[in-house]
Amino acid sequence: MTEEFHRIKRLPPYVLEVVNRLKAKARAEGRDIIDFGMGNPDMPTPQHIVDKLVETVQDPRTHRYSASRGIPGLRKAQAGYYERRFGVKLDPETQVIATLGSKEGLANLAQAISAPGDVILVPNPTYPIHAFGFIISGGVVRHLLGGVEPGEEYLRTLHRALKHSVPAPSALVLNYPANPTGYVADLEFYKEVVKIAKEHDLFLISDLAYAEIYFDDNPPPSLLQVPGAMDLAVEFTSLSKTFAMPGWRMGFAVGNERLIGALARVKSYLDYGAFTPIQVAAAAALNGPTDCIEEIRETYKTRRDILIDSMGRAGWEIPTPKAGMFAWAPIPEKFKHLGSLNFSMLLLEHADIAVAAGIGFGEYGDGHVRIGLVENEQRIRQAARNVKKFLENADKILADYDPSGGTVVQYPGQKA
């Protein structure tokens, strides 16, 4: 009875939790940690959304069980958003379902559509649930290595995976704007992917959680804008970043009726939906003014620009992300041999900065760390000053570095 449970054996430690434990220990010692580790928006939820929650919760009828699929008004609000934003018409009854955040929806869809041994194509690096939702369900993940950035190389990688996978893959996960890399896809790329999916009888699962966090004049498109995509695709969105509502746990899946129906059936056994006042407030968010979205977007853009500039001045060159709330930062050359988790731990130990180790997003993320734009401008500049001292002392830090002293952690999947 001491053997590890089968599904648990397939899951490595969650990297964000590894860093969180170290961060908590440092704070318990009284250290002021600048926390870029988790994508946890720090801005307040817009007041009109909070007001609607408070108003609704006063009615005791809203305290009862809610609807697993989401209340009708919320599903209509999401359909309205898709029509305004993307020009995509959805039937709120059959093509829209509310989820407890996009993460829960992705995991439950994996349970609904995959059988043990099914092959799922997933980019690497990517957000962990994209792979592990299917791994938990017994599926087999084939990583699209080097195929994260949309373009010709991605399509060649996809063709190779389709040709050499046995059995043939049943689904492909897409995530643009991408977490953690910040890559953005355009409609021409999506058209090619839909064409390939139709040729190979492949479901498409699109994670569009960062649709509204973009920094140029080209809003990221929806996969469902492509003619024919509705025949084989489902898309997930979330209010967490768009409206600074992470703790509210409100997301959506929309698209193909068969896929939405499968997700709805699984969810009907597992939950009664979010608390009704939260759903009413979420509908108010989707139906309400958009100036708050623009303000949130502008805050992330300002933070991004300050981060890239100040870290560059400190000696850490970081590419400028086009979208999302993260910077995907290459490990500085002198520390690259340590791997992302051990570099992250040294950064926490010597610079009081928490970041997310790239290995947590897949083996091919190990040369990077993810920096969340979740600290204010002053804290970002302070972090850059700390990084400058850290890099200036790199030789001494590495000379004093004792791999046997407990700092080094070998993470499953990490190159030795």
Write the layout of secondary structure elements.
Layout: H1 6-9, H2 15-28, E1 34-35, H3 47-57, H4 72-86, E2 96-99, H5 101-113, E3 119-124, H6 128-136, E4 140-145, H7 152-164, E5 171-175, H8 187-199, E6 203-207, E7 233-238, H9 239-242, E8 251-255, H10 257-270, H11 276-287, H12 291-314, E9 326-330, H13 340-351, E10 353-354, E11 356-357, E12 368-372, H14 377-392, H15 394-399
Parallel strand pairs: 1-10, 3-4, 3-5, 5-6, 6-7
Antiparallel strand pairs: 2-8, 7-8, 9-12, 11-12
Helix pairs in contact: 2-13, 3-11, 4-11, 5-6, 5-10, 12-14
Structure keywords:
alpha/beta; Aspartate Aminotransferase, domain 1; Aspartate Aminotransferase, domain 2; seven-stranded mixed β-sheet; three-stranded antiparallel β-sheet; 15 helices; disordered C terminus
β-strand amount: 5-15%
Structural class: alpha/beta
What would you call the shape? globular
The helix content is 40-55%
How many structural domains?
Answer: 2
Second CATH tier, the architecture of the largest domain: 3-Layer(aba) Sandwich
Count of helical regions: 15
CATH class designation of the largest domain: Alpha Beta
CATH homologous superfamily identity of the largest domain: Type I PLP-dependent aspartate aminotransferase-like (Major domain)
Mean of residue pLDDT? 92
